[in-house]
Design goal:
Length: about 525
């Protein structure tokens, strides 16, 4: 009997030792467990003491956003803007940049003769509409800098409030999975959405600059034409004065009636009234220029420097291509479409399950994950089917969400608007090209043929009237013809300058020879 007890005791001791050895082996295997290679990140495993891949993705995205902010801030500089409608001469721009900030100094600069280049540069520096658009653009850039603010706050909060018990594995606090996504995730999408908003504001700024420059160009050419019109009218008055002297001489010698003298006087009175109207119109044009330059209405402007309008421009086919690429309204619509696409993608990312299979990812929860009181498994007990690493397990989950349907309809509408705007842009280019082409052809006709012939007819009829070989009706008709042809030629030159400005507005950039 005693022998049986001894044998049983020995058997129990051996069994316990074997069980202890088995438990030690189990614990050793459990502590040294690592997921399969295909479940681990490429460069770091889940048990590394270094920053997890999500954190490195967050930092990389933050650097990308900071770089974008710097790039957009540089684009505010007119000389460095990639798609600027107008680039001022850098040397001239730097010369008057500080001067343009002072209203009195700007007014003093315009008292003498001024060029179109000076007006174009000043309007960029002083126009209220341009300044307003610049402020909105800066506000959009500041909005881009706020993309990472909430994530940074959540990360700091997690670092200070992480749970004491981290479960098994290395004693390292980690961010809650609920507030972050694997890279590229919600932070990247938020950054892209905010950047599209900045892009929209940038195009709004270019529209303000484009419209202000186009308006100041038209005012410059109208003012130049008004000055030329006054000069031609004064010259015509001098010619009529000479004709009136001839008519009086002939009337005194009995070679004509007093009716001829009266008719010349009537023509002179009409021209004097026209000259007064032209001077008042000059004030209207100057006030428009002062408005564009944000100057007081009592500022006196000097005279514009006469210049020949440009007559060379690209082919119509090339103008279409330029407009599709550079037209500000089209670029703004494309940015809105890009923003909407990323909004849909972010909504899908937040509605669908996360891109991770959740292997060895814990939240900072003080809960038991092992032992008899474990409330959930430490690792997933099974691997669900998926199309690849990092893809949603339920790819159609949430696809019928009302917000997504609404946003997708808006996106389709924006794409239709873009198609319509592209067709409208092509039409505007064609119409502007036609106006410029017609103005150039007509100006060439008047300059090369009609003006010279009208002057020859005027000289012949004047000499004929002095020798009583031409009637007064023919003489006054030749004078009127000369006046009209000269005014028309100058008007066509003005039309070329204005039509060229409208063509550049239609294509969205200043054309270079």
């Amino acid at each position: 009997m005693k022998a049986k007890i001894v044998l049983a005791f020995i058997w129990i001791i051996l069994t316990a030792a074997k069980a202890q050895a088995g438990y030690d082996d189990l614990k050793k295997d459990f502590d040294s467990y690592k997921p399969p290679t295909y479940l681990l990140p490429k460069k770091e495993n889940a048990f590394s003491s270094e920053k997890p891949p999500v954190d490195s993705g967050f930092q990389a995205e933050k650097k990308r956003i900071d770089a974008a902010i710097s790039r957009w801030e540089r684009s505010l500089k007119i000389e460095e803007s990639e798609y600027a409608f107008f680039r001022a001469d850098p040397k001239f721009f730097n010369t008057i940049k500080e001067l343009a900030q002072d209203e009195r100094a700007t007014a003093e600069m315009l008292k003498g003769k001024f060029s179109l280049k000076s007006l174009e540069t000043l309007v960029l520096l002083r126009n209220p509409g341009v300044k307003s658009a610049e402020k909105r653009f800066r506000a959009a850039i500041d909005g881009l800098s706020q993309v990472t603010a909430l994530d940074e706050i959540l990360r700091r909060y997690t670092a200070f409030t992480e749970g004491v018990m981290t479960g098994i594995g290395p004693m390292k606090g980690k961010d809650p999975v609920k507030i972050k996504f694997p890279f590229p995730g919600v932070l990247a999408l938020k950054g892209e959405i905010a950047e599209q908003e900045v892009r929209i504001a940038r195009e709004v700024l270019e529209v303000a600059r484009r419209d202000a420059i186009t308006s100041i160009r038209a005012s410059f050419w109208n003012l130049l034409y008004n000055r030329k019109d006054q000069q031609i009218t004064l010259e015509m008055l001098n010619l009529l004065k000479h004709l009136e002297e001839v008519a009086i001489t002939r009337y005194e010698t009995g070679k004509t009636s007093f009716q001829d003298v009266i008719k010349v006087g009537i023509e002179r009175d009409i021209l004097n009234e026209n000259l007064l109207t032209l001077k008042e119109m000059q004030q209207n044009i100057e006030v428009r220029i002062l408005e564009g330059l944000n100057l007081k209405q009592d500022v006196k402007l000097g005279s514009p420097i006469g210049t020949e309008p440009r007559k060379k421009f690209p082919s119509l086919r090339k103008l279409y291509d330029i407009a599709f690429e550079r037209k500000q309204e089209l670029r703004r619509l494309r940015a809105r479409i890009g923003k909407m696409e990323r909004m849909i993608e972010m909504a899908e990312t937040m509605i669908f399950p996360t891109f991770s299979l959740n292997f060895s990812i814990y939240e900072d929860e003080a809960v038991q994950k092992v032992g008899t009181i474990a409330k959930k498994e430490t690792f997933p007990v099974s691997v669900s089917a998926s199309e690849g690493a990092g893809l949603p397990k339920m790819p159609w989950y949430g696809s019928s969400d009302a917000y997504l349907r609404q946003t997708r309809h808006k996106l389709a509408a924006l794409r239709a608007d873009l198609s319509k705007a592209e067709k409208a842009a092509a039409t505007k280019v064609r119409m502007a090209w036609f106006e410029l082409d017609r103005a150039i052809r007509e100006e060439t006709l008047y300059h090369s043929r009609i003006v010279d012939r009208s002057k020859a007819a005027l000289d012949v009829s004047t000499r004929g009237y002095e020798s009583s070989n031409v009637s007064f009706a023919d003489v006054i008709s030749s004078y009127t013809l000369w006046l009209q042809t000269n005014l028309t030629m100058e008007k066509k030159r003005t039309d070329i300058g204005i039509a060229y400005a409208e063509l550049e507005k239609a294509v969205g950039t200043t054309l270079r020879d």
